[in-house]
Amino acid sequence: MGLSNLGIFHTAIGVVAIVAAIIALVRRGKIDLQQFTGKIYFYCTLVSSLTALGLSSIKGINPGHILALLIVVLISAAYYLYAKKQGNNQVRFIENFLLSFSFFLSLIPAINETFTRVPIGHPLAKGSTDPLIGKTLLLVLVLFIAGSVYQFRKQKEINKSI
């Protein structure tokens, strides 16, 4: 597998973030920064994205670095809306989308790295262009779109009831 200490730390924190997001999405239908799972997702995603900047098999800036920075921007914007726009339920639509989109983007390298490394010695995929990775990412995209529609509808109901 050949991970550096930073790579091991990055992976462990990233797995915690993904698990927290899945728990939040299953329990509440969204990543809610008021909840413990939402806070865990936010902080672990922040750390995981920042540590990704120190990881690269290619010299210089690569697409993974850009993705990590985009995720930092998305979760930071969502946190700003959460912290500074309390009581404004219209911005919850944007906050929900930003957190869900950051989760979706986090799954791209997670799926790629997992499928090209596991099981050790006989990985599921031969490389990032393997059809299995493409099909899995397509499924995740469909789930993201369906989840976003669900979140929008749920937030609309919440806003009407207030």
UniProtKB/TrEMBL annotation:
Q: Does the keyword Transmembrane helix apply?
A: yes
- Keyword entries, A-Z: Membrane, Transmembrane, Transmembrane helix
- Give the transmembrane ranges: 6-28, 40-58, 64-82, 94-112, 132-152
Top-level taxon of origin: Bacteria
Q: Give the protein name, as stated in the record.
A: Membrane protein
Source species of the chain: Pedobacter lusitanus
